[in-house]
Amino acid sequence: MHTPKPIIIGHRGAAGEAPENTLASFILALEQGSQAIELDVHITQDGEIVVCHDGTLDRTTNGSGLICNQQWADIKQLDAGAWFSEKFIGERIPLLSEVFDVVPKGTLINVEVKHAYEGRMESALLAFLREVNRYEDVVVSSFDHKVIQRLKRAEPALKVGLLYGGNLIDHGAYAKLLEVEVFSLHPHHHSFDGADIALATADGLAVYPYTVNELTDYQLMIEAGVTGIITDYPGRLKTYLNT
Known about the structure:
Elements: E1 7-11, H1 23-31, E2 36-43, E3 49-51, H2 72-75, H3 96-102, E4 108-113, H4 120-132, E5 138-142, H5 145-154, E6 159-164, H6 171-176, E7 184-187, H7 194-202, E8 206-207, H8 215-224, E9 228-231, H9 234-241
Parallel strand pairs: 1-2, 1-9, 2-4, 4-5, 5-6, 6-7, 7-8
Antiparallel strand pairs: 2-3
């Protein structure tokens, strides 16, 4: 039986070849053949949703401190590319809205919520998604499954996914514990086998394992029958899928 090819999901864009979670990284991922991108969000003190993995600015910018304690006007002045290489000097932390502007409709955007911020993130994210009205293009995931449950209950049209690293007895059965419709599972790529994937997909769940970068692991994911593969190297994965 022919196994469909998994879709290519650029992790923080093309994070292996460009500064993660920048517009340059997302554009590169799309150029390399990604059918989806994954990104992370935090919220500023003045309520802007910014795309950054860490809750602090220290690792990926020339700034420092918690994002949630700072104003967008200050954050947007920071350099988020120089740490990666001279080629990307001047790249900035983008707003979530700026990413949506450069990613074409029809391309899946996996928004990972890193922190609830006492509900501020949920309110801001739902307001943004309702404004752009691209529910078919979006899946919101998080390691905080209570956040996912609340978001889905507040907006039934939203597709939601569960991030986790544990080797669960029954991945699909766990998703049912949330008592809301879960669209996708996002397990660590070492935390399941082919039988687990078969059960999950039989339950109608998409399965998008993270973060898969080695050729041997690409093959394991394909053989397991995953729906998509989250990778730092979308170009590498595309080449592998085309061989």
